[in-house]
Amino acid sequence: VARNPGEAEFHQAVREVLESLGPVVRKHPEYLEAKVIERICEPERQIIFRVPWVDDKGEVQVNRGFRVEFNSALGPFKGGLRFHPSVYLGIIKFLGFEQIFKNSLTGLPIGGGKGGSDFDPHGRSEGEIMRFCQSFMTELYRHLGEYTDVPAGDIGVGGREIGYMFGQYKRITNRYESGVLTGKGLTWGGSLVRKEATGYGTVVFANEMLKSHGESMEGKTVTVSGSGNVAIYAVEKVHQLGGKVIGFSDSSGYVVDEAGVDLELLKQIKEVERGRVADYVARRDSAHLGRDGGIWDVPTDVALPCATQNELHGDHALTLIKNGVRVVAEGANMPTTPEGVSAFQEAGVLFGPAKAANAGGVATSALEMQQNAGRDAWDFEYTEQRLTEIMVGIHETVAETSEEYGMPGDYVAGANIAGFVKVADAMKAFGIV
Ligand code: NDP
Question: For the Glutamate/phenylalanine/leucine/valine/L-tryptophan dehydrogenase C-terminal domain, which residue ranges apply (predicted)?
């Protein structure tokens, strides 16, 4: 804490991982001798830079850009870029740290990193977004490369922003290096299923948790927080598996739709019109805006937090438990506070932590890199099959690891331990670097 002052979310993420590692270092004291834990908590490189741009009124704006290249033991740094006013070093470091273990769990050759800016895209024009993205890449490009560091999207960074950044990268470097960013458009190096991957993967993971207890998503009610990229495709997969999503939210409020969310209307409002939850309610008779409390007050079998960090608190968890929730799978990164996680685990709710449950996004990004490297493009069916196999594999690894270390059913410990051991072994093999 003294070494990284004021970085509350980073401290929270590190504490959560280290709390799981007691049994690992007892079994492998060589990790302590090689100071693997101290080294893994220290980013390999952190880049902080000025992002100046001119808004539509002709005024100069200055934002701060970040790229934390956390760990490349398993492959090039890989992780998204977040554009949101709440971004500061502590958020990027927490996300980058989590990314190390998540990427390890995918079984694919990718290291961990994260980046972004305190830029707020809400209410900005197309021209402003483009100029910001170009300025951001004008500094970032020199740190990237398909064998070095490969960013993707995150909150506030979707296909449009990746397009502007890739265009600027290509222009500056004179290289059509499609493997340098993932989440690209389908006609210029993107992968089918990437857009859907995080939401789909989260629901596949939740379904695997249910299956290991003799149940499935079929017939379950589900609530989802957020209505961005992860949330929308979580809704889609729940409906494909026979469940019913009865509520979702954004930062302006939440919607209850007992008839089941109308996915096409949700996509139209959120992806095309970039509207708010109230616009959905205005066009859907069976839906109403949440009157008080929040999305976690809606009784449900399955809860999928898919918006942002620390959005599901201890008291929300107790309400969900009281209302009979069976499964919680994190689509967002660290959406549940430590009090929330403990409450779920004590109540016997199946709890799938982000680094396992939402790894489908980065896994499919790695599949996009594979296609780029092979100058190839796979079809939807094959790519989704790969994603599903990866998610089923992660569930198996996490469940087996939790058993191996004497904590069966503890997906938090299983994910932290399995993710850590692979990175630690690679770091040990490399010597003190
Ligand atoms: P988007 O920007 O597409 O969507 C974010 C959604 O969350 C929006 O609906 C936003 O509402 C809502 N939201 C943000 N903050 C709050 C808040 N404080 N309260 C309520 N709603 C809020 O981002 P993504 O869907 O890509 O990312 C969501 C989460 O998933 C993040 O934690 C991200 O790190 C994680 N994730 C994303 C991956 C991906 O592939 N995209 C991969 C792995 C993890 P509003 O529009 O009103 O701000």
Answer: 191-431
